[in-house]
Amino acid sequence: MAAVPTLMVVAMIVWVVTFAIYAPSLPDTDALMAVRDEPVITILAADDTPIAQRVTGGRRFVPLDEISPLLVKAVVATEDSRFWQHFGIDPIGIARAFVTNMTSGSVSEGGSTITQQLAKILFLTPERSLKRKLEEATLAIWLEARLSKKDILALYLNKVYLGAGAYGVEAASRRYFAKPASALNLAEAAMIAGLLKAPSALAPTNDLQGARDRADTVLGRMVAVGYITEDQMLAARARPARLSTEGSDDLGSAFVAWVLDGLIAYMGKPTHDIKIATTLDPKLQKSADRAVRQALASDGPKLDVNQGAAVLLRDDGAVVAMVGGEGTRGDGFNRAVAARRQPGSAFKPFLYLAAMEAGFTPSTIVLDGPIKIGNWTPQNYDNHYRGEVTLAKAFAESLNVPAARVIREVGPDKVVEVAHRLGIASAIQSVPSIALGTSETTLIELTGAYLPFATGGITNAIYAVRRVTDDRGKVLYRNEPAPRRVIEPGPAEAMRSMMQGVVEDGTGRAVAMPGRIVAGKTGTTQNSRDAWFVGWSGDYVLGVWVGNDDNTPMRGVTGGGMPARIWRSIMSATPAPASAPSVREPPVATAPASKTGPLDLARRGANWLNQLVDRALE
């Protein structure tokens, strides 16, 4: 016990010394609540016309009494239930977190208070170190000495990042629900409070179900601390927050949100106005929006389909159009980027490429007859067998049994390697059934992985930004494509031929366009829960998916039906190729593609935002 006073004296000395070091640079706390304009991000289309403007925070400081009490309670309950009792740091909370983490064997709970989090937002870098934690605690005590609890909470709620480019609860409330923070209901308040755990990953525009699941956790915490009743919790869970459709008709709204998520995640909040020149083609975006909307409006009700998405790429990897969702349940969730679905037979090109690389050819004969691999007994979609068929015919007609024989020959590991090499970033189970597309992926991953099929084996990382400039006209970033060969010419030509056969003589006949070379692959999952068409024509690669968010079956929809019709409508708007396609060898030595793929969020931002960080935050 004698050591306790000594430790307290040492701690006091450390605090005084640390405060003396930082005191000269600390701003007047009155300035922290000053009204000021926030930096503006202007997003430009491929022709440099403005398509959207976003303010990184609310235009003014929002006092605590203009924020819904439900949101205040949700944040306190989730982030710092002892906020009103502690003095900036919470020894009880730290001890509880320590015990929880030791018991669980992992870091599952933190001990930082809201005041510490505010200190980090206002004054510190994201660095993780003992020195940084000491500084954070010192600054937290200083804030508590200078400000009231209500002022600290108001500052925190105005400054914290909440995903989708929104800083502060006012900006987040308007971004997600098109209403001021004062008007949030319980479910909405819980969703916003839940974003504090991982704002970019849990942003409902990225992961709507994840945001709702986290909101359920927040509601449980509010019951545990006595802020709401169990009946109120159950009522809010029964009617989860829905994103506003306001602004969903803006040109490329899903694309804009996707770009901003990457920007903020890697450069932080800009301190100057910036302009982002993107790859979005306004004409093609309008065509894509119209094609998806019209198909769902005309055929959706009778086919039990209420959602669809599309991604259109130029063959250098540029995203020129993106539709994140439409239909009767339209919201801000971007299904083109965030929805993970089984691709069905749209995954087969990776299997057949693995076969071509192993020495098979399109004319290789394979038996379409009963087969059992372990406990797996695959069947063709029509439950009929055709005897001996060529690989080209099996691929064109999307026969499952020959595909199972092929994967038995080449091995699942080889197919996984091929898919990752071409750009599938999602985890893929190395099991025989992946021959039929049983591992989930996203539409943008799958579309990007078809790029090398369209270009004779050359691929580029997918990109959406051409350049970034600040308000002084200084170029902060300019995209530099880095093409690389991922398929050798022989197998690439074999796949090109077979994928054209899908359109000429197979399941993709509906996408044929007179006078144009068209190639691709259909995909349909069990009970028509997902339907796809991914393919290319000229200089463009396009992927289309239709299905239902709750994974309920559609009524007889296949990849060669509704998705193919949407695909043809969108692709018809692209410029027809002036001549036969040619293979453009990369100007540098070839290199293997990263297994993480070009579509992973981190890689999407890192190739340009890392250069942006140091200069944009001057």
UniProtKB/TrEMBL annotation:
Matches recorded under NCBIfam families: PBP_1a_fam
Region (Disordered) location: 576-597
Pfam families (UniProt xref): Transgly, Transpeptidase
Gene3D superfamilies tied to this protein: Biosynthetic peptidoglycan transglycosylase-like, DD-peptidase/beta-lactamase superfamily
The Penicillin-binding protein transpeptidase domain, residue ranges: 309-571
Membrane spanning stretches: 7-26
Pathway: Cell wall biogenesis; peptidoglycan biosynthesis
Occurrences of domain Glycosyl transferase family (ranges): 57-222
Organism: Arboricoccus pini
Catalysed reactions listed for this entry: Preferential cleavage: (Ac)2-L-Lys-D-Ala-|-D-Ala. Also transpeptidation of peptidyl-alanyl moieties that are N-acyl substituents of D-alanine; [GlcNAc-(1->4)-Mur2Ac(oyl-L-Ala-gamma-D-Glu-L-Lys-D-Ala-D-Ala)](n)-di-trans,octa-cis-undecaprenyl diphosphate + beta-D-GlcNAc-(1->4)-Mur2Ac(oyl-L-Ala-gamma-D-Glu-L-Lys-D-Ala-D-Ala)-di-trans,octa-cis-undecaprenyl diphosphate = [GlcNAc-(1->4)-Mur2Ac(oyl-L-Ala-gamma-D-Glu-L-Lys-D-Ala-D-Ala)](n+1)-di-trans,octa-cis-undecaprenyl diphosphate + di-trans,octa-cis-undecaprenyl diphosphate + H(+)
Single GO cellular component term: outer membrane-bounded periplasmic space
Keywords assigned by UniProt, alphabetized: Carboxypeptidase, Cell shape, Cell wall biogenesis/degradation, Glycosyltransferase, Hydrolase, Membrane, Multifunctional enzyme, Peptidoglycan synthesis, Protease, Transferase, Transmembrane, Transmembrane helix
Keyword Cell inner membrane: no
Family per similarity comment: In the N-terminal section; belongs to the glycosyltransferase 51 family.
SUPFAM superfamilies named among the record's database cross-references: beta-lactamase/transpeptidase-like, Lysozyme-like
A GO MF label: penicillin binding
Domain of life: Bacteria
Protein's recorded name: Penicillin-binding protein 1A
GO biological process, one term: regulation of cell shape
PANTHER family: BINDING PROTEIN TRANSPEPTIDASE, PUTATIVE-RELATED, PEPTIDOGLYCAN GLYCOSYLTRANSFERASE
